[in-house]
Write a sequence for this structure.
């Protein structure tokens, strides 16, 4: 029989630096104050703006020249380390958590000359943590009176009217909405829930995910096909979880954990097309390729000091990052070829002399042209030359390699190699190269395991 090793751990083959992302400009108008979240706005002439939360108000920054951002208006507010902003029509709606200031409504119609506060709505709540606007309704969450969700009708955008206050999910930290369905991130409840808001006067809960102990269910976004929910948690336990919501009455956890190397804490995430745009606190801006939603991998990265928010929706294609300490970053993500990413878990010992079936996942932004495993043995102080195995695949980016069984106290060393359709080569462990065959120049480190035969072969 075969001994199968099929557990996976994500080894990211990219070098994390400024990868596939170009810095267009950096703007820090209030270096001693600090910043929070960010949104974008496009005026009637097509001019783009950053709407940037600061500790003491909202900064509106012209991006007419993305290489030279200029603040064109500022609306002050009570100080808060949180400031969440969204735009509807030519109005910005700004919420803060803990200031008792309600909801600020800012008129942007006079840009680029000026912007000004037209109302501060405190009829329905004093504090709120976040908001999202969809199809003429503003959904405000995480506020006072239990942190539920207020639904505001924006038919009169300066004087919104609340149609419902939903509390069945408890405290809601953040939301995503599509087709009158809310995905609620429920914070310290450690789970995610679906809420039907078709009737804006009578929302109701559809289903909820399993509780994931230790996480803080912070936020998330759906893939473009509205099947997979990419959830971020802010307790630095799992970073990302991915849920299959093909059946809205149940939640299937298809990726229990995805994390960046180095232990940075994730914050916000948005998905456009095949890419998830993420703000990581100490890792800055991270882009994942999610074209295969159950196998994401890093395709872009730009490190800022302490990123809070990301906004990737401007028509020009530029991405905005708000950094807590250093302000606005205007970035251009340019997807280009990246080397294959190989995922595999090392094994340590085999307790019979059966062949060992090693399984790895190998993914790429294009396609894999060749996948190999090289192994050698050491017995009684004698080390063999390298032997080559070519991988077989059963789909889903999974490759299998069968290393023969060996006698007691034989050590086996091995490494993996892959070539993509752009002629980029990756080895795992990293550092190898070579073609004909791919990976024939070994890295300096290897995986290894020992045959320990404690009884007769079975």
């Amino acid at each position: 029989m075969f001994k199968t090793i099929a557990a996976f751990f994500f080894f990211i083959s990219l070098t994390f630096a400024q990868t596939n992302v170009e810095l267009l400009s950096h703007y820090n108008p209030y270096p001693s104050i600090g910043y929070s979240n960010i949104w974008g706005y496009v005026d009637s002439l097509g001019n783009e703006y950053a709407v940037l939360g600061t500790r003491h108000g909202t900064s509106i920054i012209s991006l007419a020249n993305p290489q030279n951002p200029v603040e064109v208006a500022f609306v002050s507010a009570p100080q808060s380390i949180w400031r969440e902003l969204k735009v509807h029509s030519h109005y910005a709606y700004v919420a803060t958590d803990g200031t008792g200031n309600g909801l600020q409504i800012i008129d942007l119609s006079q840009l680029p000359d000026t912007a000004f506060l037209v109302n501060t709505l405190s009829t329905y709540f004093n504090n709120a943590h976040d908001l999202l606007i969809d199809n003429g309704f503003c959904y405000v969450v995480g506020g006072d009176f239990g942190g539920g969700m207020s639904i505001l009708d924006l038919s009169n955008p300066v004087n919104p009217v609340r149609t419902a206050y939903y509390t069945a999910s408890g405290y809601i930290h953040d939301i995503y909405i599509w087709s009158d369905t809310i995905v609620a991130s429920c914070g310290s409840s450690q789970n995610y829930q679906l809420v039907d808001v078709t009737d804006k006067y009578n929302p109701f809960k559809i289903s909820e995910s399993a509780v994931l102990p230790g996480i803080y269910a912070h936020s998330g976004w759906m893939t473009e096909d509205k099947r997979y929910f990419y959830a971020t948690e802010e307790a630095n336990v799992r970073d990302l979880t991915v849920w299959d919501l093909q059946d809205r009455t149940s939640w299937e956890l298809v990726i229990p954990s995805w994390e960046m190397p180095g232990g940075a804490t994730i914050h916000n995430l948005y998905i456009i097309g095949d890419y998830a745009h993420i703000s990581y606190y100490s890792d800055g801006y991270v882009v994942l390729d999610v074209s295969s939603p159950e196998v994401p991998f890093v395709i872009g990265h730009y490190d800022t000091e302490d990123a809070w928010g990301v906004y990737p929706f401007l028509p020009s294609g530029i991405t905005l990052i708000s950094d807590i300490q250093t302000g606005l970053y205007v970035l251009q993500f340019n997807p280009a070829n990246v080397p294959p990413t190989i995922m595999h878990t090392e094994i340590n010992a085999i307790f019979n002399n059966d062949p060992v079936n090693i399984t790895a996942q190998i993914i790429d932004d294009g396609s894999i042209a060749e996948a190999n495993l090289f192994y050698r043995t050491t017995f009684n102080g004698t080390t063999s030359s390298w032997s080559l195995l070519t991988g077989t695949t059963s789909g889903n980016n999974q490759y299998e390699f069968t290393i023969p069984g060996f006698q007691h106290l034989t050590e086996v060393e091995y490494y993996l190699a892959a070539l993509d359709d752009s002629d980029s080569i990756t080895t795992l462990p990293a550092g190898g190269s070579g073609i004909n065959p791919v990976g024939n120049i070994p890295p300096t480190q290897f995986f290894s395991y020992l045959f320990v035969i404690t009884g007769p072969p079975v």
Remarks:
- The domain at 21-333 is CATH 2.130.10.10 (Methylamine Dehydrogenase; Chain H).
- Confidence is low (pLDDT under 50) at residues 1-16.
